[in-house]
């Protein structure tokens, strides 16, 4: 708010108080007009006085700066962290999640991004840093409400926003799944022990399937029983997503863990084009011979006919070959150590990981199968992609390589948003917990997109750290009892962030 002198056509000078409302400047008060310079200055002073009165600012004749500072400090009623709310609410509203008119929902999402913890710790955080008095039972009751009312709404909002920023259509989707473990011992209908991608084989878990668009923007998710084979999760998620939004079949991209004859058949039967990571070493004898006969040089790729309606794109990379060799040698050394300490027995002779390099010698002796180890070296650096698309081989490889963005999505949800371990035991609260994490990831990704769009040279985590240092101070005037609030931007980083996101 400031005082402005504006010349009129009549030759007089109008004195006005100007305020910024909704991003534009508007006249808050016209003080008067005059052609006399002395009167104009008097009107200008009246305008400044009007602003002080409007804001509740009173001039007090203190004898020293120390008295002024002491009086202000004694008037402080509250200090809260406000930067994270100012930043994240901007993103939250831009996506459209503000149609859900529940403060608890908003704060659960913000907390999952800024201070991911149990619901009890979340209550303590909100009280300490934001002055919000939520009881843990309030949050639990809200989790039940969220499960009943909002799961479909948040996915619909996320889909609509993702579709908009991707240009209005969803032509390609990326699917992957992961496991989330629980700090409990007992299984139930949903939480079951199974193959854990986190090495928590003894903990009950759930399987989370995630579908994203280009650049990792989230589209949909589903939760499955913890002992569900990941290869059986893909088709249900994609089909549900496609039918829910009445979409034409997109190109489906998934890694080799989702490759199976049944998945390929279902994808073909339902009219999908797809790019799947191939298991070249598990192919038929003739197919393996065809691949090895290619003798590709570094950076080369080739497309070959594979099966009916399918082709295989094969690429070779020296960098990948070095990595594959190092991994094989590490696996072999680990087996050598286990053999030396007597930790291996007949049950370890299987095709899981590097156990394939074990064999029996005689009735009881376990030995390393060096012939198999050397044979596997032929495949170092080779990567296969099975597809039925009409894309050229470079486009197939480029699209498949975008799978790292869904892997990044899981890293963000597990490491930054800390979606696991999950402490809830009721299924509806587990579902609600995943919904909150899904929304938090969507907000995180949109913050990342806007930072890139603004060429901010900041990661989402760095922007959030800067926002955590922005405080709002509330003071109460002793003379009138009126409360004033002031948000403090104490350094250049905070000021730039506030200007960038207009808060």
TrEMBL record:
BP terms from Gene Ontology: DNA transposition
GO terms, molecular function: DNA binding; transposase activity
InterPro entries assigned: IS1634_transpos (IPR047654), RNaseH-like_sf (IPR012337), Transposase_11 (IPR002559)
Transmembrane segment boundaries: none
Transposase IS4-like domain mapped to chain residues: 199-441
Lineage: superkingdom: Bacteria
NCBIfam families membership: transpos_IS1634 (NF033559)
Protein name: Transposase
Species whose genome carries this gene: Belliella pelovolcani
């Amino acid at each position: 708010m400031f005082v402005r002198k504006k010349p009129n056509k009549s030759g007089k000078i109008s004195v006005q108080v100007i305020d910024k409302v909704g991003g534009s400047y508007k006249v808050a008060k016209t003080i008067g007009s005059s052609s006399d310079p002395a009167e104009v200055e008097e009107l200008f002073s009246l305008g400044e006085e009007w602003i002080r009165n409007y804001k509740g600012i009173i001039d007090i004749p203190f004898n020293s700066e120390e008295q002024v500072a002491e009086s202000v400090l004694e008037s402080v009623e509250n200090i809260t962290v406000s930067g994270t709310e100012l930043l994240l609410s901007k993103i939250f509203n831009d996506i459209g999640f503000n149609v859900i008119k529940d403060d608890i929902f908003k704060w659960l999402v913000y907390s999952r991004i800024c201070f991911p913890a149990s619901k009890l710790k979340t209550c303590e955080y909100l009280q300490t840093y934001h002055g919000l008095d939520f009881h843990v039972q309030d949050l639990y009751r809200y989790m039940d409400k969220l499960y009943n009312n909002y799961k479909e709404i948040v996915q619909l909002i996320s889909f609509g926003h993702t579709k908009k920023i991707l240009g209005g259509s969803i032509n390609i989707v990326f699917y992957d799944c992961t496991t989330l473990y629980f700090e409990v011992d007992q299984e139930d209908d949903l939480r079951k022990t199974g193959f854990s991608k986190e090495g928590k084989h003894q903990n009950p878990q759930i399987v989370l399937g995630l579908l994203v668009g280009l650049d990792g923007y989230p589209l949909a998710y589903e939760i499955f029983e913890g002992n569900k084979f990941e290869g059986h999760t893909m088709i249900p998620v994609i089909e549900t997503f496609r039918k829910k939004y009445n979409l034409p079949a997109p190109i489906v991209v998934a890694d080799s863990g989702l490759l199976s004859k049944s998945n390929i058949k279902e994808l073909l039967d339902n009219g999908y084009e797809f790019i799947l990571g191939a298991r070249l070493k598990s192919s038929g004898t003739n197919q393996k011979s065809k691949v090895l006969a290619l003798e590709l040089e570094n950076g080369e790729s080739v497309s070959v006919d594979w099966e009916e309606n399918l082709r295989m794109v094969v690429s070779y990379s020296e960098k990948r070959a070095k990595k594959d060799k190092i991994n094989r040698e590490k696996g072999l050394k680990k087996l050598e150590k286990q053999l030396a300490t007597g930790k291996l027995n007949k049950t370890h002779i299987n095709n899981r990981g590097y156990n394939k390099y074990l064999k029996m010698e005689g009735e009881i002796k376990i030995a390393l199968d060096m012939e198999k180890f050397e044979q596997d070296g032929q495949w170092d650096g080779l990567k296969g992609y099975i597809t039925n698309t009409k894309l050229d081989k470079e486009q197939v490889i480029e699209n498949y390589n975008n799978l790292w963005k869904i892997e990044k999505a899981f890293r963000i949800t597990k490491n930054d948003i800390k979606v696991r371990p999950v402490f809830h035991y009721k299924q509806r609260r587990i579902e609600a917990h995943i919904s909150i994490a899904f929304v938090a990831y969507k907000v995180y990704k949109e913050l990342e997109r806007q930072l890139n769009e603004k060429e901010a040279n900041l990661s989402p985590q760095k922007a959030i750290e800067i926002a955590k240092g922005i405080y709002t101070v509330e003071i109460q005037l002793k003379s009138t009892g009126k409360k004033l609030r002031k948000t403090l931007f104490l350094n250049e980083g905070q000021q730039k962030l506030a200007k960038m996101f207009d808060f």
